[in-house]
Structures are given as structure tokens and as C-alpha cells.
Amino acid sequence: MQTVTFNAIEKLDFRTKESYKTLRTNLEFSGKDRRVISITSSTPNEGKTSVSFQLAMSIAEGGKKVILVDADLRKSVLKGRYKSNAARYGLSHYLSGQASISDIFCKTNIPNFYVIFSGPVPPNPSELLGNDAFRILLEYLRNEYDYVIVDTPPLGSVIDGAVAARYCDGTLIVIESGAISYKFAQKVTEQLEKVDCRILGVILNKVNMSGKGYYGAYYGKYYGKYYGKYYGKYYGNNEEGGLHAAVVQKGLKNGKAAKGEENTHSHEIKNGSDPVKEKIPEENQIPEDDMIQLDIDMVELTEDTEPIEKLK
């Protein structure tokens, strides 16, 4: 097995590392049968690769054997971001029949942390991820590792993420605060629903609190309430172990809304006018206990991809 070295790992502060531990623990409590987890986003630049890497590293530090599968066959940033030395074979080599399963595993300089890089960009990523070889690979990894984290392309851009997710036990969706609309997030959910993939939770990323205590709490509810309704509708309200929504926040000391502000939120209008408050629709509300918030001082997470127009 080839050994690779990650030479540019972010140094997280104590509070940030603890927040990833919380996410790791929530994932563990989501059920023993949920060990192959895909991580996606709605659009590029929302931070899914960094979240995938840091979550996998946290799992490894917790003593579990974990492998990170880079399934973003179109525009992978994993190797470049963490300054890793090149692997001889990657996922696309295996899926196209140019390498065996044993050829693509890499041991890393992080104990318990293994990786499969994406490999060269193929002409038909969706077809490769949808073929039986990918399913066989994930089943093999399930038997060899405690957790399998699959970094997939943004669902709002290409269908690859949904194609890969159908072979996984569940999906975590990374959403950048203020970057996409609620309706667009619902469309991403519908893509996963079509392949019967369980949504384990939402990670709200890059929340800029700007001194507004209720801001992060609202965003967690804004997306979290919809996914909470989704769990109840499709998997039963009494099912134990749901991850629900996690909020990856920046500069927040207390994630809960201030008293009297539970049902309002603040957002900046594009033309530069003052923030406005809006009512959270009553039908979207779910119990406070159904949402997990991570009090996190998050490092800036950006993808090495070209920016796309923000959707409203």
C-alpha cells in the first residue's frame, strides 16, 4: 500500500476541533448501520472538501479506522489543497478498469486515516460512479474500515453526487450561509430523495455572525426545519439516532436565539440596506431539541473552483 503525506493540514483551534468531535459523535449516534457517508453541497465553494477532510481526521483521531474517498471526479481539490504527494492510481483508474481495488488505497501520515484520490478526470464521471464497480468498492470498504467518507460533487451543478449517494448509508449536505436559497436547497434534497438516500443532516458553513446572536440560530432552523420535516415524513418521527442539522458557525459564542427572537431572522439585502427581520413560517417549525448546533469558530473554507452566480 502506498503511503502519502498531507503537508498542508489546517491547524484548528481547540473550540473548532471540539466542534468536529461533536459532529463525529452525532454521526456515531446516528446508527451503526450508517458508516458509509457521502458529503455534498448545493454549489461549489461551500466547503464540502474541507469538511470531509476534517471530519475524517476527527474520526481517525477518535481511534476509528476511516478512509476518505475523493469521488469528485470532475474537479477535485483534495490533493492540491493539502499538498499531498501523488498517488499512482486513483478512483477513476479503478472504475475504468485500469487498476484493481488494492491498487488505489493510500495510507497517510495521519494514524487511522486512509485515502483514495480521484485520479485523472474521465470523460464520463456520472457513468463511472453509477456502474457496479463503485458499489462493489464501497461494500469492500464497509468491511475493511469503521467509516467511509465519500466527498462528492455539488448536487446543484451535476448529478454525480446523487449517483454516488445511492450506494451510501446517508448524506450530509454542506450549505454556505447566505449563498443559496431555501428553495434551491429543497431541489438538492429532491435529487437525493429520487435515489432513496437518507439525509443525515445539514452542515451550515461559513456563518458570519456580525454580532447578531440570533442570526446563526435562524439559519440552522431555516434549513434544519425543512430537513426535520423530511426525516419525519420519510423515516418516522420516532426514529432514534437522527443527526438532523448541524451549524458550522464563525464567531458565535451562543448559538441559540435571544429570548423573544426565536421566530425571526436577519439577513443583509443585496443593495446594502439595513438588515430586515422576517417571520419563520409556522409550518416550518420543529422542536428545538431536534436540531444540533455546533458552536464553532470556523476557519474560512473555500473550494479551489471557479465562482458561480449565487442563487436566490
From TrEMBL:
Q: What class of enzyme is it?
A: transferase
**What's the superkingdom here?**
Bacteria
Annotated region (Disordered), positions in chain = 256-287
The record's section on Pfam families has: AAA_31 (PF13614)
- What catalytic activity does the UniProt entry give for this protein? L-tyrosyl-[protein] + ATP = O-phospho-L-tyrosyl-[protein] + ADP + H(+)
Please name the InterPro entries in this protein's record. AAA_dom, Bact_polysacc_biosynth/exp, P-loop_NTPase, Wzc-like_C
Any idea of its EC number? Answer: 2.7.10.2
Organism of this sequence: Eisenbergiella tayi
Domain AAA: residue ranges: 35-196
Question: Where are the compositionally biased (Basic and acidic residues) regions?
Answer: 258-282
**GO cellular component labels:** plasma membrane
Q: What is this protein called?
A: non-specific protein-tyrosine kinase
Keyword match Chaperone: no
Q: Which UniProt keyword terms apply here?
A: ATP-binding, Kinase, Nucleotide-binding, Transferase, Tyrosine-protein kinase
Q: Which family does it belong to?
A: Belongs to the CpsD/CapB family.
Q: One GO molecular-function annotation for this sequence? A: ATP binding
